[in-house]
Design a protein that fits this description.
single chain; about 160 residues; mainly alpha; about 55% helix; rod-shaped
């Protein structure tokens, strides 16, 4: 019976002594909720792209890019058509841009486009790294009051190679 009391006393002493150790061990546990960065490196917070802020889907953004690319190709074809006068070229190009605008507005509302523009201006300033210098016309001639396409300067959808805003 003496060994039972000794064993019981030793177990109680072990339990009592282990409580502060357990509390200390819990206090030293570090919980990481995201990827761990290397020591000495700063982690940048992800900035939501303007197209996401505006509520535009990645698919809609890709469709808009496709429409714009198609319009550019059509403008190049009109410019290359030597049988058209400059006035005819301008008229056809104006029609191409009008159709482009309508197609884009069918997938991205004017309110979403304005939200994207506003976000970009807020982040990059009113000039947003756009075009520099005077603008020639679409076929190389000087144009009067040329305005670049309002949606030319926006972020790429996120992928493995996209750079942050």
């Amino acid at each position: 019976m003496l060994w039972n009391r000794t064993l019981l006393a030793a177990m109680l002493a072990g339990i009592i002594l282990s409580i502060p150790l357990a509390e200390n061990a819990n206090a030293q546990v570090t919980v990481h909720n995201g990827p761990v960065t290397a020591p000495g490196t700063a982690r940048r917070a992800r900035v939501e792209p303007c197209w996401e802020v505006a509520g535009v889907s990645k698919v809609a953004l890709q469709q808009r890019r496709s429409i714009a690319q198609q319009a550019r190709q059509e403008v190049e074809a009109v410019c290359a058509n030597s049988s058209l006068s400059m006035q005819q070229k301008r008229r056809q190009i104006q029609q191409i841009h009008e159709r482009e605008r309508q197609e884009i507005e069918a997938i991205i509302t004017p309110a979403q486009q304005e939200a994207m523009r506003s976000c970009q201006e807020e982040r990059h300033g009113a000039h947003g790294g756009g075009h520099v210098g005077s603008h020639g016309g679409p076929c190389g001639e000087m144009s009067v009051g040329h305005k670049p396409h309002p949606m030319e300067e926006d972020e790429a959808p996120p992928n493995e190679t996209a750079k942050p805003n």
